[in-house]
Amino acid sequence: MTGQCILLPDELNLPFFGRDDELRALTEALHPEPKAPSRLRAIGIYGRGGVGKSQLALQYADTSLDVYQVVAWIPADTETKLVHALSSLARKLGLVDGGLDNDRDDWGNLNRVRDWLNTTNKPFLLVFDNVERDDLLNDIWPATGQGSIIVTSRNPSTASKRATTVLALSSFPTNTRREILQSLSGLDFADTQEMAAADAICELTGGFPLAIVQISNFMRDGGLSYGSALEALNGSAQKVYTKSRLPAEYGQTGFIACENSLRGLSPEATALLSLLVFFAPESIPERFITNEHVEIRDARLQFVWDSFTFRETVAELVQTSLITRLPASRALSMRGLVQFVTFSRLSESDTIANFDLAVQVVSSSFPSSWKEGGAHQGHGWASWEACSVALPHIAWLVGMMEKHRFKPANLDLWTDLLLGAGTYLWEKEEPSRAKLYVERGLAANQSLPIAVAAQARRLLGNIFLDLARPRAALAEYEQALALRESLDGPDSPAVADMCDYIAYAYTELDDVDQAFAYIERATGIHKDHDPSKMSRTLTVRAMTCLRAGFAGGALAALFECWRLQGMTYKDMRASNNPQHSGDIMLLGRIFLLQGNAKDAANAIERALAMRRIVYGEDKGPRLADSYFYLTQARGGKGIEGLVDTLVKQCGQTPEMRAHEARSFWFWANRMVKQGARRDSPDVIGVRERAWRVRSAIGEREWPDEETDEGYMRLVPWMLW
């Protein structure tokens, strides 16, 4: 052979997007090192059909022609294709003398290529594409040499058997999908609605390259906007996927390819995959599925309790590239197109049964504490990590139920799951999302037991307080009180608890007279039953005294509350319980009212430290509120830094906007105190930023006022 030998397919040369990290990995694994000893380098790329394995390998080959003397593409899905391609390579390398017999001797040509690979000193790159059977490579795999080899396969074990490096190829990441869809469709975004529609399309495809190609061709052929394409997908995705024009090199649509994979599955794999579609696809913990406390009536799924059979079934689905197993987290993952195709094949009875089973599975893995009550925020914080794992699956079930109009067989279990999710989100300082779940739970079940309904109304009231909507909170608390009175009578401890919450709402409304009236009612009930159980009543009394300007009464009530719990100030400071951080925060506010800035700052700093342990270093309304009062204890010093932090956080949750607006307003106040004129451009600019942020806050109960009090009302008066 003289010169360079290149044998690459023209028909696979499609636009290439979004695989920079993977290309870098190929380069690091395969590129020859000039001064290093010669060795064979091999990498296996695996992933399911249409994910872009061949395109990635071809892109590496195309961009590495200056590195190799020989670059050859060998289709390897069948023995016939493999041998024929190697025979073509033998001729291209000049290993065939031109005689007719030699030209037709494919197996002889295979041996000639193998011998050449074992003896050549020329750098070469071979791509064995779409290998289905590893044994087909036995007769051609070189024993030595200084070449590089890529093996692509749907089967992870096939891809990895001979490779020194393995690359699992998945769908396009979220941050590149929109750009790829736009490039392939050739359509710019007319407005934000079109951009949102494009994002929704990308979400439906799961970032699966083949699906994105199909959708973009569907749009181009029909002259459709992103919104119109999304409407078509939502209405009849199967028709879109099966009928859309597809580049010939793919051979079949993604929908049909996926269906073909499903048809060859064992009964166990089919049953497991049919259940997995009811979970959020990114990460499905195996322990959810194998939980022995879940009642599985479907005999087809009872194998999940047998660890050996379960592992074998998962391996089958992984080998067919229908799911991916994440070993580190012992979780399963599947792509959107696989979910869609699997779901579309389910019968109505299987759909309903699997939805109800998924509800039971998630419920069994969700450590809900919402019925336990609790004096303040955070009583379930020890189980937050487990809740965070289950929450995406609850959200997925909610989406499926609303889209397909499912009716859960066990309505009480479904309601409990929704209310538990709402409680967790409230405790995690996401009251806007929490409100949606609690309202869904109440709307889903109009026949809740009275005690459960009262607890749910109380929870919704707590959420409204965190949203600075005390009037809405009061309405929920009053409903809960009426329910408790009807169940337990007017003088029960449960009624006293609700009186505490109503007093809390009135304190937030700055109606301290009404608040004290309910506090006295609660106190009387506790004295008649068990005075040692009135610690919550005492904390509400302390807060109301603070709001009324009675620092001495607030301090006395707070210390008595701690005494009833068998705790001292020192004990409180040493605690990491979020509800105790609220007590320390209240103490700091009392010191502020007394004019004791030093002790106030010390107490608030301790509350901050306690809250950081639970909520993180610098995120969330309670930390923002604590920082704000710390700046007040320091005479406004540090407000600029708080503003910077809140500006970065504001886009994450709507709850932060109120804290951001308040901080901008008080930053302007500090500028004036430091000598700036009220009508100076700098002060006006900061005030305008406060106005803009405030205008984005929805469902406010107070009129806009350009005063300190007006901006203080944007946030709860007291965040426990």
Number of helices: 33
Helix fraction, binned, reads 55-70%
Radius of gyration: 33 Å
What is the overall shape?
elongated
What is the arithmetic mean of pLDDT?
A: 87
Amino- and carboxy-terminal Cα gap: 80 Å
**Reading side by side through the largest sheet, how are the strands ordered?**
1-3-4-5-2-6
Please provide a written account of the structure.
This protein is mainly α. Among the domains are: 5-168, P-loop containing nucleotide triphosphate hydrolases (Rossmann fold), CATH 3.40.50; 174-251; 487-712, Tetratricopeptide repeat domain (Serine Threonine Protein Phosphatase 5, Tetratricopeptide repeat, Alpha Horseshoe), CATH 1.25.40. Helix content is 60%, strand content 5%. It is built from 33 helices and 9 strands. The strands form 2 sheets. It has a 6-stranded parallel beta sheet with strand order 1-3-4-5-2-6. Strands 7-9-8 form a 3-stranded antiparallel beta sheet. A hairpin with a 4-residue loop joins strand 8 and strand 9. The protein is elongated.
